[in-house]
Amino acid sequence: MPPAADSVLPRNGFKHTKLESNLATIDVGGQLFQTTKQTLNLAGPDSLFSRIAESASAQLAPPFIDRDPELFSILLSLLRTGNLPSKAKSLDLQDLIFESQFYGIETFLMNSLSNPSHFDAFNLEKSLILPLNGRDSPSAIATTPFGSVHVAHGSKITSFDWSLRKKSTILTQFTAVDSMLAMSPRTAAVGATDFSGLQILDLENGFVKETLNWENVTRSGSTVQAIGSSPEFLFTSFESARRNSNSIMIYDLNSLSPVNEIGHYEIYGAEINSAIPATKLNWVSGYGLLMASGSHSGPSGVLGNIKFWDTRSGNVVWEIQEKVDCFSDVTVSDNLSSIFKVGVNTGGMFYADLRSMGAENPWVSLGEAKKVVNGKKEGSGCKIESHGSQVFCSTGGNVELWSEVVLGSKKSSKNGTEEERLFRKNLMGRMKDMGGRKGDAGGTTVAAYQVDFLIVLFLHFALDVPLPD
């Protein structure tokens, strides 16, 4: 049987089909590019590429865009393959960002520069040190789901876009910012332990959008001790200006209207335990609980508590009273179902399994047990944070990375509970090798907050965007 008439190849060997109407020709800066409308539509309905696909026609002249053709070719290749071509390395990243914003495909560029396969839990290296204006050390760091980073240093807040190249700095009303939570790329909740009220700041224009206050029975002002959030709510730990009462307020994250109040304590006499406000708030999504932790240094040493709140009922589900080796810093990991702390006296690392809530002494030492030497607080100034299945800790001037070693099978002990879990430590290097410097144990130091910088930068250059809180 002879071939159909419409499938016969012409003499030049190329077949002309009815699919030509799917082709789009674009004139960028005098250079012609040809692609398919399907490729252009991958950019999304709000992009310039999508509008070009709608207007492109074989009967009309190619649409003209007065932009750089070299940059356009890079972005077109990004649409076609989902990755940047190798020749993009010779171009300035900021130029690519501006061009991607013009065409409406910045998200594509952002995702192409984030590759989770580059994240090796035991082979991490410094990515970048963020340049800040002035000599003030960082006191608070916040990230957004869009990859941007906000750093408080002194009375200033410096914001970096997701590429960590473009930055802007605003001056706040605070002498120093102690707590900061990013609510959006341009908005943050900010507080200080010596300035009354929680401020909602416009970080782009540098003005206060709203101030949230809490008053006790004496109607005195209140300072912010900690800020946290869940997908629905904003949590703020307040302490009265006279330091005789404290509370945790819950606000609707969108309207900022008060929803509930938990942990309201009025201090009378020598009730020192109730005088400890929460200085760190972590939402544990896997359990639907709010972890609130705080400590106090007194004549008998450092005391503290860790409470898990049911925010709807206002009840404490689990509480750990810290007396022997209180935490210098504490964090919680949903992935590992555990709390991690650095002991203020020993500087040792400990974990408590959330699946064993109610245990009288839940802490298990990681590594060799450390002893107090000459009464020195080895863990003072240490910081600890978790991301995914890794825990980062700055201790003794070093940065440590702890990961759980997954065993083939888990045996149960005689009392029916699982045996101790195994964690592995990877030493990532001295602080001085990473642009930080170790300062006085009692003050805010670059070393103490360098671990937060490292986590932020690893996430930007090694993990998928969006970033976690």
Automatic annotation (TrEMBL):
Swiss-Prot/TrEMBL GO biological process terms: protein homooligomerization
Residues in At2g24240-like C-terminal beta-propeller domain copies: 138-415
Pathway(s) of this molecule: Protein modification; protein ubiquitination
InterPro entries the UniProt entry points to: BACURD1-3, Beta_prop_At2g24240, SKP1/BTB/POZ_sf, T1-type_BTB, WD40/YVTN_repeat-like_dom_sf, WD40_repeat_dom_sf
Domain Potassium channel tetramerisation-type BTB: 25-111
Superkingdom: Eukaryota
Name of the protein in question: BTB/POZ domain-containing protein
Organism: Pyrus ussuriensis x Pyrus communis
